[in-house]
Amino acid sequence: MAPRVVSLTPAVFHLPEGVNAVSRAYGAQPIVPRGPAFAPLLAAIRSGVTAALRASEYEPVFLTGTGSTAMAAVLGSCLHPTERLLVIRNGAYGDRLHEFARALGQPMVDMDLPYGERPDLDRVDAILGRGEADAVAVVYGATSSCSLNPVAEIGALCKRHGKKLFVDGVSALFVEPMELGAWGISAVMGSCNKGLHAHPNLTMCLVREDLLAEMQRLPQRAPSLELVKIQAAQAKGSHPYTIDPMSLLQVKAALEALEAEGGVAGRHAIYSARAALLREGYERLGLTIARWEGMPLSSIGTALEIPANVSYEALAHRLATEEVDGHTFEIYAAQGKLSARLFRIFHMGSYELDVYRVFLRALGRALG
């Protein structure tokens, strides 16, 4: 029998059985995108997302694509072309926010930091206080360093100065504590994969209602990702472009699985238990957890120093090919500026806690 392949990555991992069951059954019971079953399905997941995130003052918008699609949609829909955007980037996805804003021709204030470094909040306060920026974009769960940016504190500064706040919550929604309204978030870029545990072929944004009203007067600059147009259609039970109803059904099943675990708080507790087990195991095996001052570790994974006695490639190969107790394991290289010294292990998806105990045994063997 082939071993069970366990993905310790942040994108492709085992999903809840209810989500997997959708694709098995869908061929016999498809939903037509403009048929009578579509609008009730869309309404159910729209209300399910806002209920799960306690975000009643936000409008969810679903899009075909990934988290990067959500980035492009928010940046291309929520800003006037002349508004100045402060981009706080201390990881690969902060770099992507900067890249997308530059492609749109958005005026920017670029806070370019070493990966993992905590943003200087006094500097942010000064930039906003001097009126040098009209909006801020920042990543919450920084997967490059497996840490969390101080979004609540940045949100307080944005509220004080009357500025918009756009948050990449792709790796944080549904698993990290996140109070959208209390933190002053104007729009969040999300994912239906990651913390929600559906497939990565559908994504979402959540836009605060007052911003949505303002957006009626803004040019929508990302073709097929115009949040004003799409939200208006989805609120009436339709979609202006092609969207996959099977993916919507998978999101519905993922929301049901989330509720069965106790909602976001329950899933956060599950992930925290995994993190505690694994991090104690890493240190017991002599590995060094990468940490940055003032940046809490995320709940979804851990960045580790590459040990001196083995290369990342050799370690990853052994874990992926040498079976331990019926399992093999796929781990993740670090990104960009950290790739030479770190690797990453994520603990996302629908796995039992014992799977991670098996992994620690496999890791110990692979380390020699």
Shape call: globular
Query: Residue share in helices?
Result: 25-40%
Q: Quickly give the CATH architecture of the largest domain.
A: 3-Layer(aba) Sandwich
Give me the CATH fold name of the largest domain.
Answer: Aspartate Aminotransferase, domain 2
Strand content: 15-25%
Task: Give the count of structural domains.
Answer: 2
Count of separate DSSP helical elements: 12
What string, H for helix and E for strand, traces the elements in order? EHHEHEHEHEEEHEEEHHHHEHEEEH
What are the segments in which pLDDT stays under 50 over at least 5 consecutive residues? Answer: none
- The termini sit apart by 26 Å
Whole-number mean pLDDT: 97
Our Rg estimate from Cα atoms comes to 21 Å
CATH classification class of the largest domain: Alpha Beta
CATH superfamily of the largest domain: Type I PLP-dependent aspartate aminotransferase-like (Major domain)
Describe the strand arrangement of the main beta sheet, using strand numbers: 2-10-9-8-5-3-4
| Structural classification | alpha/beta
The main β sheet shows up as: 7 strands, mixed
Quantity of strands, as a count? 14
What this model shows, in words?
- The protein has helices at 17-26, 38-52, 67-77, 92-103, 121-129, 151-161, 209-215, 227-235, 245-260, 263-284, 312-321, 353-367, and strands at residues 4-7, 58-64, 85-89, 108-112, 135-139, 141-142, 147-148, 164-168, 187-189, 202-208, 301-305, 327-330, 332-333, 342-346.
- The chain is α/β, with parallel strands linked by helices and 368 residues long.
- A hairpin with an 8-residue loop joins strand 13 (332-333) and strand 14 (342-346).
- The longest helix has 22 residues, at 263-284.
- It starts with a strand and ends with a helix.
- The model has no long low-confidence stretch (mean pLDDT 97).
